[in-house]
Write a structure and sequence with these properties.
3-stranded antiparallel beta sheet; alpha/beta
């Protein structure tokens, strides 16, 4: 409208309006400009390249361009076209930040982030920083920071938050606070480091507050900067789980009957193996990202973990098992009242009326199978059962693989040559990999022994041809045991094995129409 106010603003921005593209941009942003404030917002938004004239988006664009006024291209365009003073007037109104002519984008950032922090942090914890805080403008600053924090371009905010932490010496301040005082604030990444440092130091001092650790991880897991330190948090969660298990069983392991120890392991004790494995997976991930403030502390935590697992759990449970099982092992070579691996083919394969698929994963121990069963239960419509059986002795590949094949009797034979070695025989026949297909066919002609690595690389039609007309399909999988021989990480191999086996299950169900799938192992590992 041709009002004195608008005419005055057009005159003030005459340099800006000389270019048609800038005039067109303003028109697109707001075709109904009727006040000076709207004119200022439209010009600033056009210079920022924004799609609207929201003050918070203007401020974000300016800070996004850098905290140095002299090198900030957007701010310098404000100066060039006379929009700098309106910008600071808008900032003062929205945030409460005002320093006359001595303005600074860095101090503005400190002002906004600290003012926003007062929403989730007690003012007493920011004592001495009052000059950077405007309580009446808390809502605007909190909404501004929160919107940016949860936007797709929050990486720049991370750098700004790190700048504010350093300038305001926040790590030194926050490190003096209790865990419960730090668990809610989200904007500053250093809070994660302060929380983790506090929890790790307590663990190193043999103080493991299970409920505190679990509640802290649960709370922080939903916050924006969590991913960069998630391996540390998730590792501590496993320490808390291990400590909770220890407290549940602090009296030790004293069961006398071996089959009852077996049941206790398969229903309860195996969880400790899972916690230990998950901790080390987190530890391995942490080594790859390397946070100089946390790495050494996390390594001290591993000492506590090893004490709980190797010395207490394996030591005491192992001794209990050895004492309880000694008589059965001496008399029978096995534990009575426990299902035996040697009976697997007759019990689980031969008695099936329909086609059966058997996946044998080398060294796939019980607790990893428990995790696989849980994932299959959640991810498929299948009925999933988890059971256990005792492996033959000694529990190594050549004996375990032989036990899973059809046979009436197993025996060993000394093979002489350049190096002497024991061979395991099933009814006098070799059970080595190249003879397993023959042994399966001797029990049921419509049987085949396959390797996972061969199957997975084949085309669908070729895979289909392999199992056509077959009643029994054995599939050999070797990810975990192979990692052990290569001295790779067994624990990460377990995760890989779970994913590969789930993939094999999908192939069997979707491509081969398999409805009866058995997943087992020749032996486990320590």
């Amino acid at each position: 409208p041709a009002t004195p106010i608008i005419r005055k603003q057009v005159k003030n921005y005459s340099k800006f309006f000389r270019a048609k593209d800038r005039r067109d941009t303003v028109k697109k942003l707001n075709s109904n400009i009727s006040t000076a404030a709207q004119m200022h917002l439209a010009v600033m938004s056009a210079l920022c390249g924004n799609n609207d004239i929201q003050p918070n988006h203007i401020v974000r664009s300016v800070i996004h361009a850098g905290l140095d006024l002299d090198t900030n291209s957007i701010y310098q365009s404000f100066v060039n076209y006379g929009a700098d003073k309106p910008f600071w007037a808008m900032v003062a109104q929205a945030t409460g930040y005002s320093e006359g002519d001595d303005v600074s984008l860095g101090r503005l950032a400190i002002h906004m982030l600290l003012t926003a922090a007062t929403r989730t942090m007690h003012l007493d914890h920011l004592a001495g920083l009052d000059a950077f805080i405007s309580t009446p403008h808390q809502a605007w600053c909190y909404d501004f920071v929160s919107d940016w924090l949860h936007s797709a371009d929050n990486r720049q905010l991370y750098d700004v938050a790190r700048y504010v932490e350093e300038e305001a010496r926040l790590p030194q301040r926050f490190s003096q606070l209790a865990v419960e005082d730090l668990v809610d604030p989200e904007v500053f990444p250093c809070i994660n480091e302060c929380l983790l440092t506090s929890l790790m130091k307590e663990i190193s001092d043999h103080i493991i507050q299970v409920d505190t650790i679990k509640a802290t991880v649960e709370k922080r897991r939903t916050m924006v900067w969590y991913d960069s330190v998630s391996s540390y948090y998730e590792g501590l969660l496993q320490v808390a789980n291990m400590q909770a298990f220890f407290l549940e069983h602090s009296a030790g392991f004293h069961t006398v009957e071996p089959h009852k120890i077996w049941k206790e392991y398969t229903t309860d004790y195996y969880r400790m193996d899972t916690y230990y494995r998950q901790f080390h997976l987190c530890f391995q991930k942490a080594l790859k990202i390397s946070n100089s403030l946390l790495d050494d502390l996390f390594k001290h935590v591993t000492e506590k973990v090893e004490g709980l697992y190797s010395h207490w759990f394996l030591g005491q449970l192992g001794q209990n098992w050895s004492d309880a099982a000694a008589e059965d092992l001496e008399k029978y070579g096995r534990i009575l009242e426990v299902t035996q691996q040697e009976d697997f083919y007759q019990r689980k394969v031969a008695k099936k009326d329909n086609r059966v698929f058997v996946i044998i994963s080398d060294a796939f121990r019980y607790e990893v199978a428990a995790e696989l069963a849980g994932q299959l239960q959640r991810e498929t419509q299948a009925k999933v059962n988890l059971k256990s059986m005792q492996a033959v002795f000694p529990t190594i590949t050549k004996f375990g693989m032989a036990a899973l094949l059809p046979h009436k009797a197993l025996s060993v034979e000394l093979k002489t040559g350049k190096t002497d070695r024991l061979a395991v025989l099933a009814d006098g026949q070799s059970t080595e990999a190249n003879n397993r297909d023959k042994l399966l066919k001797a029990a049921d002609k419509a049987s085949v022994a396959l390797k996972y690595k061969d199957i997975i690389g084949m085309k669908r039609a070729d895979r289909q041809a392999l199992i056509k007309g077959m009643n029994v399909v054995y599939i050999y999988h070797d990810t975990i045991d192979e990692a052990g021989h290569l001295e790779s990480s067994i624990f990460s191999a377990c995760d890989t094995a779970i994913e590969e086996i789930k993939n094999m299950v999908r192939i069997i169900a979707n491509e081969w129409g398999g409805a009866n799938i058995l997943i087992t192992a020749d032996h486990g590992f320590l």
